[in-house]
Every structure is written in C-alpha cells, then in structure tokens.
C-alpha cells in the first residue's frame, strides 16, 4: 500500500532522512520509533507531502505521490497530530466535517457520518455544538481522530497522537485506540518516541536513529533479536516490562513441563494471555499454579518460577 | 459657567452646519479607512508570507506615522491640491500602519499546529487563508482597524486646514474667533464619534470569528456610502473657489460682511492661512482672504481686490500687555513704545516680504530694522525678572515679537522668553489672560470684533474711525481684562480679498464688486 524507496531528505547540508526504504502493507499498523531528531516525523510528513523529499520515491497504491496534487493526496489520508490541531473557531461538528466538505460531500451524508464517528469514538452527541476549548485533552484527541477518519481514508498518518496527554489518560486512550473498530483495516503509519505505545499499537516497528532504520520487525523480534547494541540499549530500561507484556504464554509453552499440581491451587487459562496478564491472574486469584491450554488442546501447568524460567529459555537463542 | 446653555443654543442654531460637518467628518474618516483596509490587509497578509519584506514595509509605514499631520497635509497640496482628496490620502497613510501591523501580527500568530493540520487535511493555501488565518486573526486585525479609526477621527479635524471640511471647521473657527461654544460644538461630536466607533468596533471584535452576521457589516457600509456621496460631488462643481480662514469666515469685517454688503455668492472652503497662499498660487483656490501687509502677496503673485464698499476697516497694531507687568516694571512702557510710529504699511509689507518670501529669519529682519532705526542695543545682563512674549502663527507676529524681545533685552535688565507661533487669537489671548504670557502684538479690529465681540451698534458707530476704535478697545480691555494696549506701532492692518494677478487681469477683476459681477454673470 505504502512503499518508500531510497528516500532521502536534506535540510541544507543536514541529512534528516538518509536513504530509507520500507513498505507498509494494507491494514498494517507500522510504527516509526525513535528519539527526537531521528527523522521519524520527517519521514511521515514526506508521505503526505507536507515535506517534499530530496531523493527517492514514495508510492501509495503503486502511484508516485509526486504525481498526485498535494491537496488531493492529503484529503485521502487521515492525519492526526500530537496537539490535535483542531480549529479553535470551528465547533466540534464543523471540525469533523472539514475534509468531507473539502470533498464536497452532500450535507446529509456529512451529518450521518458525524453521528457514526461520534458513536465510534465513544463521545456523546451533545458536544457537537461545543468548541474544542470546552473538551478535555482526551476528548480532543478522539475528535482529532474522528476528524482524520471523517472521509474514511484508507490510510492514516499519526504523529505522536497521544504525546500531549498526561500519563494516565494516555495509557487509557492508547488501550482504547488499539481496540477501536474504526482503525481496523486502516493502513496506519504512527510516529512515536514512546516504546510502550509502539509495542501496544504496532504490528511492526521501525526503529530509527540518525535518519536511518536501525531495525524493523515485529515488536517481539526487536526485543529478543536486537540487530545491534543500539537496539538492545534502546529497550534496556523497559525490557522486563515489555517482555512480560509482549511475550505470550504460547511463546514459552514449549519450555514448560507437564507437571501435575493440586487442583485447588490452579487457575485455568488459554495460551493467548501475556506473561504479565498471567502473573496478574495468579495474583488476583490467589493461586500458586496456572493451567494453560493451547490451541491444539494440550495442557501444561506452571508456577511463578517456571514462567520466568520459560522466559529465560526464550531469550537464549537471541544475542545475549 | 454660562457656557452650557449657550453651547446647546449654538448647536441648535447651527444644527444644519453641524450635521454637514459631522457627515463630512465621518466621510473623511471612513473613506480613508476603507482604502487603508483594502490596501493594508492584503499588504499585511503578503508580508506575513514574504517575511523578508516585513521589516522594510513596516519600517516604511512607521515613518509615515511619524510625519506630523499638518506637515503631511501640507505636502499634499502641490500634489493633490486642497479639499477632501488630499485629506483622504493623508488620513489613509495614517491608518495604514496599525492595519498593516496588526494584520501581519495576527496572521503570523496563528497557531502553527492548526496551520499544519489544515495543510495536512488537504486545504489549499487560499482555503487556509480564508477559513483559518483570516478568521483566527480577525480580532487582532479589527483591533488595528479600531486604532486606525480613532486616529482618523482625531486627525480628520485637521482636514479643515486644507479645505476638506469636517468638525475641524468649528474647532479651529472657534479658536480663531474666541468662541468657546463653537470649539465645543466641534470637539464634543468629534470625541463622541471616536468613542462611538471605538465601541462599535470593540463589539465586532468580541463576536466569535466566522460568526459575524452580514447585518453587522451593513451599518458601517451604509455610513460610508452616505458620507462619500455627500462629500465628493459637492467639492468639484463650479469654477471659482474661495478659501477663507476660520477667523475670516466668522467675522463681520470678513465673510459675513462680504455676503451682507457685496452679496458675494461664491463657493467657499475653510482653510488654514498656513497653506492658503500656497493653494492660491497652485491654482487650487481662486479667491482668498489675507492681510493688507502680508508679504506673501508679492511672493505668490497675488493682487488685492479693491474694497470699493469699504467693509474692511483698517485697524492699528499695538502691543497688548498685562497691566500687572507694567505696574511691576514701569520702565517697559517707554521701551515698548519706542517702536511706535516707526513702521508704516509699506515698511511692514517689506519686512513681511523678506520673511515670507525671501525666507530670511524673522530675528535677522527684526535686528536689521532696529539697527537702521538706531534702536538696537546689545543685551544687558539680565538679573531682574522674565517677560514672556507671545505671537500668533504668521510672519509679521514673529518679527514684532523679536523686535520687542530685543528692545527689552537692550534697555532693561529683564530676561525675555518668547512663545511664538501660538495658533490663533483665542490661544494668544487666553494665554495672556491666564498669565501664561505677558504680552503679544494684537490688532484693534480683532480686539473689537473677536475678543470683545462688541454689539453691532457699537461696531457701526466706530466703523472706519481708527482712533476711536483704539480708544474704545483700550478702555474696555483695561476694565474687563486688566490688559493694556500700548501705543500703536504705526501700520494699519486690514483684511483684504486677493486673487492671482494673472487670473484677475484676465477676468478684468479689479475690485470686489467686479468679482461679484463676474460670478453673477457666469
């Protein structure tokens, strides 16, 4: 769907993005992750031509973006910014209607679409006539998303969409977004510096540094098969948390023994639970052991210790 | 405090004129404002996009703002003549700065993130301007227009100096004629106008951008149209145009007398005497008033029309001094009277000519004359007190003030301070009465008609009798104001009607009656 080929951007003598290539498949959520100044936002903005590239090609659905009028291109891509960028002089409904009006949709269709969107981002209808300043940060961000998706574009570009929210709201909204029906089937490119967010939302993560892609792959791959010390260092602070959150029971299933524990001390679950959730479950149910059934119907039981041993064993084939 | 009912009566009596002036004033303010908005807002938008141009453009509009209004109006005369057009151009230039600056600031201060999201959603630059930048910067732009409006209401009072009408006619007429009611009749509506428009615009500013209803815009547009229809055609109609000073317009031995005695019927504009001669020379005016001794007569090739029905009586010029000062420094009397009888009409005209036309400094002209008359002495060491000498704002008064200053310094141990260029009879006289100056040269006719405002019967009785006027004025001033008229300087000053020599000869006009006939035959 989106394909970047040897894309370079220079600002004067400084190279912001250095000959990068990657593809984002239809329906995939691809996260550009990195510290500030790594070139991730520049890369994103080149896709909708807010920044013109210096060299290389960007194709959307096989068509070079250079050959599409910038305004037309942008109207077919949702764009969500860190500070939502809602128009302060427009009501919420006017804000949502911006792109449909640019596309000259009939008013009736716009009104129906607004209702539909509002429902999907879980906001009440009575906010439609309010102005953005009357909404909380989280609500504004949801309207920002609704606005970006108003004309139902197949592609959504998000630049630090939750960056302006406080930690608690951010966690909540991130969770909410990851389950949002509206975002299913969208091809999403999301820029963030927040590792947790990247792991939570990304099907695939591209870790960038100094304008280059250092490693790309599934979240777990970056965690367990870091391509360089930069990658492992990048995750080192949150490694345990990420591992627990993103390693599923099925990932360590093969390392678990088939021991038989006291039934009264068991809690039952499927292997699609993350390690973290499994530990939470043990804790909340006040049990010592967990009984895991995988897709094939095989059952294994594990204690706290055997879960951690399994995690260690998983890490062995990696670089460490 | 008998001003209050008097003011109301005056306004009622002059309501037609007042309404005319008010409409002219609004017209001047808003036509210039309209042009300033039409030019200034796009210019502000343009420089907000080409930041390199912002500094030079803003510097230029800034410079325009610093030019004194009177000077700017003066510059306009050779280019655009007199009347509403140069006044509108000058007002336009004044209104430009706040409008350009605020548009530029307003547009530049629109949140970059909002602009980014507008671009990101696929708005074209034109759509961003119309839907985002202009609505969001509207309060700031309106604040600029508001500032410009208030400035323009104020500066427009000066437009009457170059014959563009407006409430300045009453204000400056009142100052010249010593008529407080007239001043207030102009000043109060002007102030109310400024407050009113400021209020209206402040309301506009508070309306949520993008929600401004058409009806709100309609009202100013109506006022504008009304005023512009009113102001423009009136000015460019018949062929002969007279420009008279505010003082002349209101004096019995001036325009009032011309209408009464000569049945003169000519289109008139009120104009400052600072620019009147030049405007006549530039053929922007055909007939002007002036003083018989004025040096600019010769300078600008003008001809005095013979006053064949004798409505301009000659009057003495003499120093007018506070009695208190003469009691305190009795030696002043003889010093100031040294000039008495020394300057006749032709000498005064010659001296004025040197200052007005040859551009010699009044001080130099005064000193040379005193030396020729052997009256000049080097200044003594001042150790007694200070005499403050005032003068009105034309050449003759400057010369006389300098002569008195030299005489006092040379003959007494008094220090002298000059406060020259006071803008009219009322300002000079009020300064004198209120102990701001101690003396200034005044004319008995002005004393009789403008200051004392003597009843018609007295004026008629005294008409043409110089000596009797002097005696009457001297007695009344001492009684009423404790002011002393010293001995007359010697020359007679009188009003006169003037035309360009060439035009007068071509049309065969020698006297005021000729002029009246010429006009009636057309």
The low-pLDDT segments of chain A are none
Largest sheet of chain B: 5 strands, mixed
User: What is the percentage of strand-forming residues of chain A?
Assistant: 15-25%
Measured as a percent range, the helix fraction of chain A is 25-40%
- Supply the helix-strand structural class of chain A: alpha/beta
What overall form of chain A do the CA principal axes indicate?
globular
List the helices and strands and how they pair.
The complex is a heterodimer of chains A (320) and B (522).
Chain A: E1 2-11, E2 14-24, E3 29-33, H1 40-47, E4 55-60, E5 63-64, H2 70-75, E6 77-80, H3 92-96, H4 98-102, H5 107-120, H6 137-148, E7 155-159, H7 167-178, E8 187-192, H8 195-201, E9 204-209, E10 212-217, H9 219-224, H10 229-236, H11 239-246, H12 249-252, E11 266-270, H13 275-285, E12 289-293, E13 299-303, H14 304-315
Chain B: H1 3-13, H2 15-49, H3 51-66, H4 69-80, H5 84-108, H6 112-120, H7 125-155, H8 168-177, H9 180-206, H10 214-235, E1 241-244, H11 246-249, H12 255-262, E2 267-270, H13 273-281, E3 287-291, H14 296-299, E4 302-305, E5 315-322, H15 323-328, H16 331-337, H17 345-356, H18 362-372, E6 386-392, H19 395-411, E7 415-422, H20 425-433, E8 439-443, H21 444-451, H22 456-462, H23 466-481, E9 483-485, E10 492-493, E11 495-500, H24 501-506, H25 512-521
């Amino acid at each position: 769907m989106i394909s970047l080929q040897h894309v370079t951007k220079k600002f004067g003598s400084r190279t912001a993005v250095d000959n990068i290539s990657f593809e984002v498949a239809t329906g995939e959520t691809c996260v550009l992750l990195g510290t500030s100044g790594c070139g991730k936002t520049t890369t994103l903005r080149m896709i909708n031509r807010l920044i013109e590239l210096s060299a290389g090609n960007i194709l959307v659905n096989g068509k070079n973006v250079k050959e599409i009028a910038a305004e037309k291109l942008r109207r077919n891509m949702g764009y969500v910014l860190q500070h939502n960028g809602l128009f302060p002089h427009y009501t919420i409904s006017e804000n949502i209607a911006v792109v449909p009006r640019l596309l000259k949709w009939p008013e009736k269709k716009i009104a129906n679409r607004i209702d539909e969107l509002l429902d999907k981002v879980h906001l009440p209808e009575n906010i439609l006539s309010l102005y953005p300043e009357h909404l909380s940060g989280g609500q504004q961000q949801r309207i920002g998303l609704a606005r970006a998706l108003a004309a139902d574009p197949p592609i959504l570009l998000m630049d630090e969409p939750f960056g302006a929210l406080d930690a608690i709201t951010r966690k909540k909204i991130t969770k909410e977004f990851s389950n949002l029906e509206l975002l299913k089937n969208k091809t999403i490119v999301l820029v963030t510096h927040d590792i947790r967010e990247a792991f939570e939302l990304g099907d695939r993560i591209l870790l960038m540094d100094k304008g280059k892609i250092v490693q790309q792959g599934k979240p777990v791959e970056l965690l367990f098969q870091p391509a360089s010390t930069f990658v492992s260092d990048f995750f080192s602070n949150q490694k345990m948390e990420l591992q627990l959150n993103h390693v599923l029971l099925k990932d360590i299933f093969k390392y678990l023994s088939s021991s038989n524990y006291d039934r009264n001390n068991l809690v039952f679950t499927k292997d699609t639970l993350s390690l973290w959730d499994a530990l939470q479950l043990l804790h909340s149910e006040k049990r010592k052991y967990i009984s895991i059934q995988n897709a094939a119907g095989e059952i294994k039981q594990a204690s706290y210790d055997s879960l951690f041993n399994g995690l260690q064993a998983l890490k062995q084939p990696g670089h460490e | 405090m008998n001003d209050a009912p008097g003011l109301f009566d005056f306004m009622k009596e002059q309501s037609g004129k007042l309404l005319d002036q008010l409409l002219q004033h609004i017209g001047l303010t808003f036509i210039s404002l309209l042009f300033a908005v039409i030019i200034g807002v796009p210019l502000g938008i343009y420089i907000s996009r080409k930041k390199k141009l912002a500094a030079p453009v803003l510097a230029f509009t800034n410079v325009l703002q610093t030019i004194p209004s009177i000077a700017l109006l003066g510059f306009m005369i050779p280019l655009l003549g007199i009347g509403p057009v140069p006044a509108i151009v000058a007002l336009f230039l004044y209104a430009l700065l706040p409008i350009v600056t605020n548009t530029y600031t307003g547009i530049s201060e629109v949140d970059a993130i909002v602009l980014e999201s507008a671009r990101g959603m696929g708005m074209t630059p034109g759509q961003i301007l119309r839907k985002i930048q202009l609505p969001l910067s509207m309060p700031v732009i309106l604040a600029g227009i508001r500032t410009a409006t208030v400035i323009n209401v104020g500066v427009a009072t000066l437009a009457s100096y170059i014959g563009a009408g407006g409430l300045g006619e009453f204000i400056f007429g009142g100052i010249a004629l010593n008529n407080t009611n007239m001043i207030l009749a102009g000043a109060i509506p002007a102030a109310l106008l400024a407050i009113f428009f400021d209020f209206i615009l402040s309301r506009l500013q508070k309306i949520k951008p993008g929600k401004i209803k058409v009806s709100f815009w309609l009202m100013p547009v109506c006022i504008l149209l009304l005023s512009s229809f009113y102001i423009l055609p009136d000015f460019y109609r018949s062929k002969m145009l007279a420009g008279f000073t505010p003082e002349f317009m209101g004096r019995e031995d001036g325009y009032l007398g011309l209408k009464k005695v000569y049945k003169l019927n000519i289109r008139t504009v009120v104009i400052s005497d600072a620019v009147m001669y030049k405007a006549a020379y530039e053929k922007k005016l055909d007939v002007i008033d002036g003083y018989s001794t004025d040096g600019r007569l010769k300078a600008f090739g003008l001809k005095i029309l013979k006053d064949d029905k004798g409505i301009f009586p000659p009057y003495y010029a003499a120093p007018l001094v506070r009695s208190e000062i003469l009691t305190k420094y009795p030696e002043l009397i003889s010093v100031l009277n040294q000039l008495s009888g020394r300057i006749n009409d032709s000498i005064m005209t010659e001296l004025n000519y040197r200052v007005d036309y040859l551009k010699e400094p009044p001080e130099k002209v005064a000193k040379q004359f005193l030396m020729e008359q052997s009256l000049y002495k080097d200044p003594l060491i001042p150790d007694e007190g200070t005499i403050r000498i005032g003068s009105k704002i034309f050449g003759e008064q400057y010369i006389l003030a300098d002569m008195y200053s030299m005489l006092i310094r040379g003959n007494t141990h008094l220090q002298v301070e000059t406060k020259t260029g006071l803008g009219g009879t009322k300002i000079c006289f009020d300064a004198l009465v209120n102990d701001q100056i101690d003396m200034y040269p005044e004319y008995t006719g002005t004393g009789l008609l403008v200051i004392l405002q003597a009843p018609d019967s007295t004026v008629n009785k005294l008409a043409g009798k110089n000596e009797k006027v002097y005696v009457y004025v001297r007695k009344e001033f001492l009684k009423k104001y404790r002011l002393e008229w010293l001995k007359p300087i010697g020359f007679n000053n009188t009003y006169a009607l003037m035309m360009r020599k060439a035009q007068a000869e071509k049309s065969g006009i020698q006297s005021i009656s000729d002029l009246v006939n010429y006009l009636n035959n057309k």
